Amino acid sequence: MSLELSARVIERDVDVALEVADRETVAVLGPNGAGKSTLLAVAAGLLRPDTGRVVLDGVELTGPDVWVAPHARRIALLAQDPLLFPHLSVLDNVAFGPRSRGVRRRAAHEQARSWLEEVGVADLAVRRPGQLSGGQAQRVAVARALAADPRLLLLDEPMAALDVAVRPALRQSLRRVLADRTVVLVTHDVLDALLLADRVVVVDGGRVVESGPTTEVLTRPRSPFTARIAGLNMVRGVWRDGALDGADGTVVTGLTPDPLPADGDRVVAVFRPSAVSVFRDPPGGSPRNTITTTVTELEPFADQVRVRAGALAADVTTPAAAELDLVPGLRVVFSIKATEVAIYPT
Amino acid sequence: MRTKQRQVGLPAWIFVPATLGAALVLLPLVGLVSRVEWGSFLELVTSESAMTALSLSLRTSVVATVLCVLLGVPMALVLARTSFRGQGLVRSLVLLPLVLPPVVGGIALLYTFGRRGLLGDELDALGIRIAFSTTAVVLAQTFVSLPFLVVSLEGSLRSAGARYEEVAASLGARPTTVFRRVTLPLVLPGLVSGAVLSFARALGEFGATITFAGSLEGSTRTLPLFIYNLRVVDPDAAVAMSLVLVAVAVLVIALARPGRSTW
Fold it and tell me: Which of residues 301-320 of A touch B (CB under 8 A)?
């Protein structure tokens, strides 16, 4: 195990534990204020938790009687803003880590050049940070973090401040340079998690609410936040008489796991918006699940219309939406085939 | 018709006191300039005693400014980057010389470093006499100028924030390296303007100096003291030297104007 972290910060109501294997990239997902940044600050040694431990490669960095200073941790931090030192050239920015470790100027510049090459901005070496675009600056920041030869790399929403148009290219670069590194990536972009991470940890309200391999967590979410970012509908309830019994009287049947949950177990039903049909009146005599609800919002989605009703969403074709004369406030029935619903315990 | 940005209107009467205030600041300067004997100006400001006073003023102010930087930078860092109990109180006390009448500062210095002062016996035993020496001039100037540097630099440190320093540390830079390669360059404009302000305050120091250092030609009679002495016996020379100090002050404002050289 490469990184073991546990931290309790009472002031921010955060109590999390995280493990990252050697050369593994773990994405930490969660809404704003969930405690993701607190977790990074604890790892980087910028915040001392009330109780907790940080152990990297078997060396205790934070503990009840241990405190290793940030500069001695070999943990590099890449934030949302590139934070390039404005008074240094791009090359000197990237050479900062090696120089701080005592590498001679010439050798440090050599290393800096090869890292700039690695992230595709070798031609910017002589520029000042003020002369770079946001995407270029963030690439330089990536090169600078890697040049410090960290044992652990912390990325705090590295693409959140960038123009949407430049994100895919940077994401591809990150995918290449992060492979074979131990990385904690904080994000709320599900694409980052899918493309960059081996595993995801979902944090909400200062607690880890679920974790596992990326695709598994995103296809079988157990928390409302994960379902939302994965673009899935989720209904929560308890297992009773072979179906999910929701709090508001909704009953959902679907594909169930083997073995079956016991009566009273907490379960969730998960289904895609495209699996939902929308009716004005309950369709009679069909074995479908029906949920009576109120339209809250309509938005274009790909070549269809996404109908939102509270936390639920349905995708219908534009002609269908017109024919149903959907408007916010309208009472409608969402209908889902049982074979399109996955029910599993949480 | 030209387009012109209009602000929400000020009441018209506001301009009356505003103009009066500006006149109060500027008229005395006009008065001073009107009294200058231009014919003998150069001769007056280059007289031997004037040059002695000017040179003493410049030397002591430079040393005082260096002391302010050496002591004030660490003080500003401790105030801006750490937190401890009673920090607010410490900050207020450090700024005390800013509001204290200089003559009170001079008396306080006298009863600390003077022969019969708090540290008088100890200094005497070491054979050190401070009061009424050039050292006393420098000490008085440093005492009154230090807050200027601390205030201005602490502001720069706070607005620069600690994020660059955190990144530098995460790249493996020791605290001293972070200070030298990141903190200091980032706040350099603030440091320079703070130092210039301190220099100006030191150059103009009068009350604390005359109380603690006296007015001995060549060793403690700085330019302001010289002008004060001269004003009765040779008003023309006093006016001429005053104009020199005004010129220096204008230069200082030009150099230290805030918001000029930011990154």
Answer: none
Q: Does A115 contact B at CB distance below 8 Å?
A: no
B56 close to B218: Cβ distance less than 8 angstroms: yes
The span from the CA of B233 to the CA of B244, in Å, is 19
pLDDT of residue B6: 66
The domain that holds B119 is classified in CATH as: 1.10.3720.10
Q: Is the peptide bond before A259 cis (omega within 30 degrees of 0)?
A: yes
Which residue in chain B has the smallest CA separation from A96?
A: B171
Calculate mean pLDDT across residues B112-135. Answer: 88
Strand partners, A276: A336
**B31-68 confidence digits (pLDDT tens):** 999 999 899 999 988 999 999 999 999 999 999 999 99
Q: Which domains does chain A have, with CATH numbers?
A: 3-224 (3.40.50.300), 232-345 (2.40.50.100)
Asked if A44 and B166 come within 8 Å (Cβ–Cβ), the reply is: yes
Does residue B75 fall inside a structural domain? yes
B43 within some domain = yes
DSSP bridge pairs for A7 = A16, A52
Spans in chain A with pLDDT lower than 50? none
Give me the number of domains chain B comprises. 1
Q: For chain B, give the percent of residues with pLDDT over 70.
A: 95
Which residues of chain A make contact with B171, given a CB cutoff of 8 A? 71, 76, 96-97, 100, 144-145, 148
**Tokens encoding A218:** 């995103």
Helix (H) or strand (E) holding B158: helix B134-160
Task: Check if the beta carbon of residue B119 is closer than 8 Å to that of residue B113.
Answer: yes
Mean pLDDT of chain B: 91
Residues A251, A245 contacting (CB under 8 angstroms): yes
Residue B91 counted as domain residue: yes
Q: ipTM above 0.90? A: no
Residue B226, in any domain of the structure: yes
What pLDDT does residue A160 have? 86
Query: Range with the lowest mean pLDDT among A256-260, B70-74, B138-142, B239-243?
Result: A256-260
Q: Which residue in A77, A92, A101 has the most chain B C-beta atoms within 10 A of its own C-beta, making it the best mutation to test that interface?
A: A77
Q: Residue for token digits 């930490």?
A: A28
Query: B124-140 pLDDT, tens per residue?
Result: 888 888 889 999 999 99
Contacts of A45 in chain B (CB under 8 A): 169
Q: What's at A291, amino acid-wise?
A: I
Beta bridge mates, A332: A293
DSSP letter, residue A255: B
Count H helices, E strands: chain A?
9, 22
pTM across the whole model: 0.81
